[in-house]
Amino acid sequence: MTLLLTVIYIVFGIAALLTLWRIISGPSILDRAVASDVLMTLVMCVLGADMVVNQHTRTLPVLLIIAAVGVFGSISIARFVARRDNTDR
Amino acid sequence: MNPLDLIALVLVLIGALLCLTAAIGLLRFHDVPTRLHAATKPQVLGLILICVAIALATRSWHVVAFLSAVIIIQFATAPLSAHMVGRQAYRNGTIDERSLIADELADSKRTPPAAGG
Asked: Of A29-33, A69-73, A85-89, B12-16, where does mean pLDDT reach its minimum?
């Protein structure tokens, strides 16, 4: 039980760190948009895991709001990014 | 403890592993569409697993109703953002052209003036 919880925490932490590294180092802004999308999904998953572990339902509306409005971030980035941003891949 | 709680924890673990595979894919793949391919796995399947785990852990129909709304909204919006990002990646040139087997958009590559590209 405690082992399972520890493994879950470590896996979430490593996934968040790797995604954060892609946000920092991603060559183009679209890479950063994709990575921040993944980080947002990770936040939703962590909120859900917290609800499972601690047996409460207080953060369910947060889950709903993130699912509803989180899409606008990457859509607006993809909409208004320049034709060619100044990166050489 | 209740066996349902254990099943819920295992589902959470599988969802966490999906998030980890997406993060590894983000690091290892080399252009935007392949990273997008890795990134869209936990957005749908991982979230479904976690929502099933929440439903198993709380065992209440109110929570199930709430979670189905979350899943439906995520189903509707995840392909939307992936489509926008992928289209802009094609127009933007942040795509490895040699990795394309068939390029059906090659004739209409020029961005139409009103497309905001």
From this structure: A85-89
Distance of CA B65 to the CA centre of its chain: 22
Q: Which two tokens stand for residue A64?
A: 């709903």
Residues 6+ apart with CB under 8 A from A11: B13, B16, B17, B19, B20
Q: Where are the domains of chain A?
A: 2-80
Tens place of pLDDT per residue across chain B (117 aa) = 788 889 999 999 999 999 999 999 999 988 888 888 888 888 899 999 999 999 999 988 999 999 999 999 999 998 888 888 888 888 777 777 777 888 777 776 555 555 554
Map tokens 């040139």 to a residue: B93
Q: Nearest to residue B76, comparing CAs of B44, B46, B54?
A: B44
Q: What are the strands, taking DSSP E only, across chain A?
A: none
Structure tokens at B70: 């979350």
In B49-108, the residues whose Cβ lies within 8 Å of chain A are 50-51, 53-54, 57-58, 60, 63, 66-67, 69-70, 73-74, 77-78, 80-81, 84-85, 87-89, 91-94
pTM: 0.86
Distance of CA B44 to the CA centre of its chain: 5
State the sign of the Cα–Cα–Cα–Cα dihedral A22, A23, A27, A30: positive
Q: Is-contact A19 B26, C-beta < 8 A?
A: yes
